[in-house]
């Protein structure tokens, strides 16, 4: 029997509340599909940092590298500055494991209240391919003239050809694989004088290798507006680290799935484990109440199984989510208009499988 | 009689089509309110660039500096790279005239189809205060290793204390002036390691001088999603050059007013002329058909009159726009669901005044 060895990092806040639901669903799916699953839980989190001064142990990355895959909850604590907590865990994992693809679905699901008028499930259904290792997210820069009137901060974005080309190729390949030969690029070459014209030129160049794939590009400002005005138009949208980040929260915002959408951090070469997480954060405002929606975490688990080569298991989970959401009597957490708790919704999905 | 001397730059594409409507409306308003207006038109545009290699003459800025104010249409031509056309006209004007505030309303108007469900005029009504002179829009950087596998591009954002503090203060002052003491800051301190933590620290510091103003801050990704999910919540939103740019297209996207919204580039000290323009671009796809919506340009003219110290004139224009839009028989351009042309809608607004 095939078996998969998963590193589980519940993290902080609601991360620790939604994770068990995903694990239960995974276990049930494994039984049905006939594969094994081994979970090893790591308590790396802001809580750990407050105790030890480290988000993960010194050999954390090498521990993780033993696993087939990583399932992450959410990391973040109000008392720990984001740029410490994230650059001590999430971002090093993405970078050192060369998870240079951040793949996120934007999909209108049944039974989820959509903020847009006159849309029904199926109307909105596309993918965001985000560069995940370089670009605007950078440690290059700093504060100068501190404490003087000439004070300021600099921040340098770096777009390597290596990093740019590989994400663009992934986007084109993905559009091909989906059978939806259309890639939209997010740019801002009219304002970001160096980086974005470079991005555009690479997009044009790589596109030549995919003559059957239709391409278009929009400046990020108008593209964001188009996500609201005409979200039906998109198939695969590719963006830099920052633009992809913005678009992949905005997309779920538009489809009402901000608490529901997953995020796959993928190393396509499979040299390193990939990491799967919900789009939502640790949500300190509702943590401890067990009312968080577990679907983001469960959908992330579905994407993980797909990546691990178990598409049947992935579909089973996804179908269960959609079937439960579509049921009028389904338990619904407050974010999707109900009063049910995390466990109830999780249990309903598990039972559906 | 008071008189104002306005530099008029229609620019390219639909810019040249919507501008006359704004001028007619302004003339009518001046008659009624009893002030004079002198227009001087400059043909600076991509068309000029194709002929002369310059977007404006060498002494362009000094010509403009003679005027009380600048009314701009839109600049951009498919055959002229954006980073040439804009860095040759729009961006130098913003910077050399220290128009460090870009002020943009996000407002649900009557009679404009709104992409969001269950919203009515009045529900969404807030202001975006965007930094307009520095930040991510920078010429610092370039391409390295060109033509080699180690090729790439770098782009450096610069946030000076001088530039950051003045825009933050403007936002707080503006919230005070509106009587809506609530300022929301756009950040991304969890990804942009240097610039955004600096921005946040200045926001916290300046906020201390406005103890009665409530503050909050969101990362740009979730803030974009909130523009869709809960746009009622905002009063004044302050953002860097790039974040403000994105939010101030997204906001009008959410309210259906992308072809209608204005943009004021303000030098608050009034040492230099300020510049008023519609949010929309030159729209080469519909240029020449005279079907562009002139309201963005007319609303920009209203903001101009307000800035010039004629609030009565500004209100008169704004009221006329709203009254016409609210009329079931009003001429409507295609973008707002009708078949009327630019001139008809413009004439209706002028007649309403
Ligand atoms: C044309 C472009 C440079 C400009 C900007 O990004 O500032 C435009 O999008 C705007 O918002 O006025
Ligand atoms: C937490 C933060 C650093 C992260 C990001 O911006 O990448 C998050 O927003 C995400 O999209 O996964």
From TrEMBL, chains A, B:
InterPro entries listed in its UniProt record: ICDH/IPMDH, IsoCit/isopropylmalate_DH_CS, IsoPropMal-DH-like_dom, TTC_DH
Entry EC no(s): 1.1.1.83, 1.1.1.93, 4.1.1.73
Pathway(s) served: Carbohydrate acid metabolism; tartrate degradation; 2-hydroxy-3-oxosuccinate from meso-tartrate: step 1/1; Carbohydrate acid metabolism; tartrate degradation; 2-hydroxy-3-oxosuccinate from L-tartrate: step 1/1; Carbohydrate acid metabolism; tartrate degradation; D-glycerate from L-tartrate: step 1/1
UniProt keywords, alphabetically: Manganese, Metal-binding, NAD, Oxidoreductase
One Pfam family in the UniProt entry: Iso_dh
Cofactor: Mn(2+); K(+); Mg(2+)
Domain Isopropylmalate dehydrogenase-like: 5-349
Chemical reaction(s) catalysed: (R)-malate + NAD(+) = pyruvate + CO2 + NADH; tartrate + NAD(+) = 2-hydroxy-3-oxosuccinate + NADH + H(+); (2R,3R)-tartrate + H(+) = (R)-glycerate + CO2; (2R,3R)-tartrate + NAD(+) = 2-hydroxy-3-oxosuccinate + NADH + H(+)
GO molecular function: tartrate dehydrogenase activity
NCBIfam families, per the entry: TTC
Entry function: Has multiple catalytic activities. Apart from catalyzing the oxidation of (+)-tartrate to oxaloglycolate, also converts meso-tartrate to D-glycerate and catalyzes the oxidative decarboxylation of D-malate to pyruvate.
Family classification: Belongs to the isocitrate and isopropylmalate dehydrogenases family.
Record-given protein name: D-malate dehydrogenase [decarboxylating]
């Amino acid at each position: 029997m095939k078996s998969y060895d998963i590193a589980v990092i519940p993290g902080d806040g609601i991360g620790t509340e939604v994770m068990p639901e995903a694990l239960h669903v995974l276990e049930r799916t494994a039984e049905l599909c006939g594969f094994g699953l081994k979970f090893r839980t790591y308590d790396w989190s802001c809580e750990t940092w407050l105790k030890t001064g480290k988000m993960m142990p010194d050999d954390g990355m090498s521990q993780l590298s033993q696993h087939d895959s990583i399932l992450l909850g959410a990391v973040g604590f109000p008392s720990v500055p984001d740029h410490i907590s994230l650059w001590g865990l999430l971002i090093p994992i993405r970078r050192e494991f060369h998870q240079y693809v951040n793949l996120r679905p934007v999909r209108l699901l049944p039974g989820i209240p959509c903020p847009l008028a006159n849309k029904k499930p199926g109307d909105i259904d596309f993918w965001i391919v985000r560069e995940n290792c370089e670009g605007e997210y950078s440690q290059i820069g700093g504060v100068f003239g501190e404490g003087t009137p000439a004070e300021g901060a600099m921040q340098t974005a770096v777009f390597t050809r290596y990093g740019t080309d590989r994400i663009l190729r992934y986007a084109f390949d993905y559009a091909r694989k989906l059978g939806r030969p259309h890639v939209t690029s997010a740019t801002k070459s009219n304002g970001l004088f160096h980086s974005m014209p470079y991005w555009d030129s690479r997009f044009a160049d790589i596109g030549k290798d995919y003559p059957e794939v239709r391409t278009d590009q929009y400046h990020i400002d108008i593209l964001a507006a188009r996500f609201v005005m005409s979200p039906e138009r998109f198939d695969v949208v590719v963006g830099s680290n920052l633009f992809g980040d913005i678009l992949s929260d905005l997309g779920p915002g538009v489809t009402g799935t901000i608490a529901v959408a997953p995020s796959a951090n993928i190393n396509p070469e499979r040299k390193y484990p990939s990491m799967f997480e919900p789009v939502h954060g640790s949500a300190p405002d509702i943590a401890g109440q067990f009312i968080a929606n577990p679907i983001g975490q469960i959908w992330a688990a579905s994407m993980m199984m797909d990546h691990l080569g178990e598409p049947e298991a992935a579909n089973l989970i996804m179908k269960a989510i959609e079937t439960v959401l579509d049921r009028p009597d389904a338990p619904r957490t407050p974010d999707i208009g109900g009063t049910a708790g995390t466990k109830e919704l999780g249990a309903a999905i598990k039972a559906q499988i």
